[in-house]
């Protein structure tokens, strides 16, 4: 998609949000809404702040992730008013805002003050944002019913949002290719992270989340957060879970690469890849997302049996007796948008057999989800199984051999369409 087409879609996106927000305000009994961008709090006992990426509803309208102390006013029948904090400051640079068509859809103002703007008060005003930055702003702060209604406006993405998510996938796919090549060339986790950032042209502080880069057994820690600066003597596996933020929207992609000579592990990666493709093909309107999660466990059971990791139990028993949960402990995915784990995925508690599932809704056109099956060799989960009555069905020697590879996860970003789905990650060449 051309830049011109993207910018045109953004104007339509803002008009759509105006309609959705006006409806939410009317249903909840408010006449206007003030949204705070928020700001990064200072670290305790320090004059340095945490990294800042903005409050979800503010990003939903503007995409301005690093814009602190700014405010957006929404009123029915009137153009939104956006106050951007632009102080006179020789310590820091202000955000440079390129001239774009969406500026004509809002009333854009600049302020040297961090506080909420002074404005005439008419009717019922709602104010949403981090309570730490709302202070004494007049109006009702963070009313729950309205917040829930506004969260729901983010569930079905506009064409502009989908275009941004597609671009975020394209950028991240280039980073994943560079990461894989660096791993295969003998790079450390630190080297792999630098290669990813170099290819995506995005510092990690601006990325949607801290990249998970695990070599060998580190791949078995689901959110492994450290980067070894020295490469291991034998590089057996790489798991990288990393994304890119584009105009506020996130990609969230995971790939696993076997090391040279790791035939058994490579076969498992190929098996999980085939399963992941089948699960992505299940995404369609009217499909219960929990059903995709449960189908994943059936697929993991078949893969464990085919690989010889488990024997003497049929696939149904492997699922029902919790064996698959020891190898695949997390949920199959989540909503994706201006937050990596986007809002209102759980309208009710997750089922007992999927306690960590972040999405349990029926899929609808416009939703964007991740599909991320995994198969891991995590000692704290497998040891109780091996030492228990089911241990005789597991091949301990094979599991011990594969522990050093850590685990496998393969994750794509998928749009639910009217006719089925679009896999943004595979479209981008991932």
What is shown here, in short?
With about 425 residues, this protein is α+β, with helices and mostly antiparallel strands.
Number of helices: 12
**What string gives the helices and strands in order?**
HEHEEEEEHHHEEEEEHHHHEEHHEEEH
Tell me the radius of gyration.
Answer: 24 Å
- Main sheet overview: 6 strands, mixed
Query: Strand content of the residues, in percent?
Result: 5-15%
Q: Indicate the CATH architecture of the largest domain.
A: Alpha-Beta Complex
Could you please say which CATH topology of the largest domain applies here? Creatine Amidinohydrolase
Shape category: globular
CATH class division of the largest domain: Alpha Beta
Number of domains: 2
User: Quick one: CATH superfamily of the largest domain?
Assistant: Creatinase/methionine aminopeptidase superfamily
Total beta-strand segments = 16
* Average pLDDT score: 96
What percentage of residues falls in helices of 4 or more residues? 25-40%
Spans of at least 5 consecutive residues with low confidence: none
Protein structure class: alpha+beta
Summarize the SSE layout with pairings:
Blueprint: H1 3-28, E1 32-36, H2 56-62, E2 71-74, E3 81-85, E4 107-111, E5 125-128, E6 140-141, H3 144-152, H4 159-184, H5 189-200, E7 212-215, E8 237-242, E9 245-246, E10 249-250, E11 253-258, H6 263-282, H7 289-307, H8 315-320, H9 323-327, E12 368-371, E13 374-376, H10 379-387, H11 396-403, E14 407-409, E15 412-416, E16 421-423, H12 424-427
Parallel strand pairs: 1-5, 3-4, 5-6
Antiparallel strand pairs: 1-2, 2-3, 7-8, 8-11, 9-10, 12-15, 13-14, 15-16
């Amino acid at each position: 998609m051309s830049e011109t087409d993207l910018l045109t879609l953004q104007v339509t996106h803002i008009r759509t949000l105006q309609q959705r927000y006006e409806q939410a305000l009317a249903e909840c009994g408010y006449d206007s809404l003030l949204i705070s961008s928020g700001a990064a709090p200072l670290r305790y006992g320090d004059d340095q702040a945490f990294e800042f990426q903005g409050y979800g509803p503010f990003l939903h309208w503007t995409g301005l992730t690093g814009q602190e102390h700014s405010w957006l006013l929404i009123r029915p029948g009137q153009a939104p008013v956006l106050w951007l904090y632009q102080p006179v400051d020789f310590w820091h640079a202000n955000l440079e805002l390129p001239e774009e068509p969406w500026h004509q859809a809002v009333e854009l103002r600049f302020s040297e003050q961090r506080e909420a703007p002074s404005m005439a008060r008419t009717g019922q005003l709602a104010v949403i944002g981090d309570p730490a930055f709302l202070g004494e702003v007049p109006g009702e702060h963070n009313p729950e019913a309205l917040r829930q209604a506004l969260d729901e406006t983010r569930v079905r993405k506009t064409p502009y949002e989908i275009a941004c998510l597609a671009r975020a996938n394209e950028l991240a796919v280039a980073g994943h290719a560079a990461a894989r090549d660096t791993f295969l060339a003998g790079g450390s986790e630190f080297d792999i992270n630098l290669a990813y950032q170099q290819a995506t042209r995005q510092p990690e502080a601006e990325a949607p989340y801290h990249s998970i880069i695990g070599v060998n057994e580190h791949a078995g820690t689901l959110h492994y957060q450290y980067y070894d600066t020295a490469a291991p003597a034998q590089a057996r596996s790489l798991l990288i879970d990393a994304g890119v933020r584009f105009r506020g929207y996130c990609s969230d992609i995971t790939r696993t690469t076997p090391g040279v000579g790791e035939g058994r592990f490579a076969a498992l990666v190929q098996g999980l890849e085939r399963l992941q493709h089948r699960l992505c093909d299940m995404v369609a309107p009217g499909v219960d997302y929990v059903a995709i999660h449960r189908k994943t466990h059936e697929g993991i059971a078949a893969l464990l049996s085919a690989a010889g990791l488990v024997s003497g139990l049929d696939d149904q028993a492997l699922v029902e007796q919790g064996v698959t949960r020891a190898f695949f402990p997390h949920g199959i995915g989540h909503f994706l948008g201006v937050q990596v784990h986007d809002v209102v995925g759980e309208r009710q508690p997750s089922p007992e057999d999927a306690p960590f599932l972040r999405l349990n809704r029926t899929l609808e056109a416009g939703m964007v989800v991740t599909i991320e099956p995994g198969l891991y060799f995590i000692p704290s989960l497998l040891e109780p199984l091996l030492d228990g009555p089911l241990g005789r069905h597991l091949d301990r020697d094979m599991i011990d051999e594969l522990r050093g590879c850590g685990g496998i996860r393969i994750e794509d970003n998928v749009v639910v369409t009217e006719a089925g789905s679009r896999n943004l990650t595979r479209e981008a060449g991932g």
